[in-house]
Each structure stands twice: as C-alpha cells, then as structure tokens.
Amino acid sequence: MKILPTSLKGWTGVLIIIAFSIMMFSISLPYFAMDKKADIDFLKQKLNVYHIDSWRIGFYTHVFTSVLLLIAGITQFSSRIIKGFPRLHRRMGMTYLIVLIFFSGPGAFVMGIYANGGPAARVSFVFLTLIWMAFTIFAWYYVRKKDYIAHGEFMIRSYALTLSAITLRLYLYFIHHFHFGLKPLDKYIIVAWLSWVPNLIIAEILIRREMAAKLMKKQ
Prior knowledge:
By secondary structure, this protein is mainly alpha-helical. The chain is 77% helix and 0% strand.
C-alpha cells in the first residue's frame, strides 16, 4: 500500500513543506547554544527582554518545537495515511495537538506579548496564537464527536496558521531584499499581519472547495 502522494501536485506540496522544515531546523540550530551573545540578529533585537524568564522560556520552547509541528501537521492531509494507516494518523495528530497546545502555542503567546513593532504587531501575534490554539482544540473536539469533516476543516485552519512560521520569514526576506522604503516599525507591523492573514484566507477557500470531504473520500 502506498503512503505518499502519487500526483505531481501532492508531491510538490509535501516536498515544499519538507524543504522549509529543513530550513526552519537549520535556522533553529544556533539557538541551541541558548546564549544571548550568539551572533543571531533576532537575539540582538531582544536584549531588552532576554533577561525575562517567561520570555526566554517561551521563546526557546516555541523555537525547538515548531519544526515538529510542521512535520506532524503535514501527515494529517494525506488521504493514504488517513485510510491506510489510521493509527499513524491518530498518533501524529495527537503529537501535533499536545506539542501545539502545551508547548509551542504558549511559547508563541509569550513571545507575542513582547513582540517588536509596538501594539499593532503585538495584537496580531497574540491574536494569531489564540485562534491557532482554538482551531486546534476545535479539531480535537470534533474528532472526538466523530464529525470528521468539521475536524478536517479546523485542522486546515490550524495548519495554515502553523505555516505562518514559514510565510513570516518569506515576507521578511522579500521586504528586506526589496526595501520598499519602509521604516523598521512599519516592516514589523506589515509582516506581523501578512504572515498569517493570507494563510487563513487560503484555508477558507480550500474549505469552501470541500478539501476536508475530498480527503475522506479518496482511497
């Protein structure tokens, strides 16, 4: 029985996620030193809050668990795993739920409170974290109710927000490369909202096109 997608579209999506997961892991490696003096641009911008225990714990927890969410999450959208390997699907789904709700989500929430960019950026990241966790809890709730379509729809929303870790960095690179004459504060605010709002719009489009139902129907 084949697990991986056979269509070009399916392979492309999986390979893109894997490639970016590897990129995210490579970005995370320098943080394992857990040293505020490390030559990392992000930490240099956070010297004013690094001494705060809650921020530091939240930051490292979020950074070290995000890659696992990307990998565990993508397995939830393979019809072959759902149909042929339901136990693997459930275990990876539970891994995704536990890591997100108890580790990565709370870490992201604390980071959002102290985010650069002032209130406008902080509101974006805090709200992102709250609905990210809420969508994931709803996905768990509906699978417990055996409403698998609603479960799939909320997982689509949740994973779309998980992917904001990737889209945020893509937009940062794009804006930094082309400049656009933006001030640093404006960049933070724009990227804070751009990193996840389009993702959620795309998720809603996929839901309207009955992606969850189609995954359940495929053999």
